[in-house]
Give the backbone structure.
Amino acid sequence: MSDLVRVVPHDDGAVWQVTFGAGHGNILDGATMRELARVFVEARAASDLKAICLEGAGRDFSFGASVQEHQIDQVRSMLETLRGLVLDLLGCHVATLAVVRGRCLGGGLELVAVCHRVFATTAAEFGQPEIALGVFPPLASIVLPERIGRARAEELCLSGRTVTGPEAREIGLVDELADGDAIEAARAWAKAQLLPHSASSLRFAVRAIRAGLADRIRVELPEIEKVYLDELMATADANEGIRAFLEKRRPIWKNR
């Protein structure tokens, strides 16, 4: 465990409650993503583990990847780290249950969309706001259509708008809205639906049902990242949008 990621085992180690974040918004900076990736690597070797409940600390899930690390001199490393985190999540072959309170934005939503089930409070909010910064979400371009269908994924990525917990449930982004604490709902589901089964057999089932998605991310995501890095980041507007956010002002688009 570290200051950035905490792991609490439950049910004799069959369920891990993984909490990340060390500040306002639980930003997924490079250090936090590497710590989360380490947990998923360790999960692969935990033979009794059947489910991981992933949550952000405090009132929000995550505001997403660090905007500071979206700058042209850091963005390549940021994208590679996020891709590595998701591949480690998929590679642990353990059922992952996302627990969302408050805001779940950008890279936070991309991470949630990869999880098997999503539990949220009614006050939760979800969005891919990257377009407001003049950029786009490479990982979401693959995983959001997989989860909610192409038309709905395109609408979220192109508009950048935020959806509420009930709307997220309606479009399939959320599987269960919790009346109380979403972590308790996630743990109750894991106990009822996963714990009666063999941990070994569950891993084979997870591996089989996610094989296509893992392959798509390995093959397609680097190509989308190449467009982002070599073409998008060569435009004036992508750099202007990120600068404007960091300088707390409205961007001035040149449309090129």
In short: The chain has ten helices and nine strands. Residues 211-230 form the longest helix (20 residues).
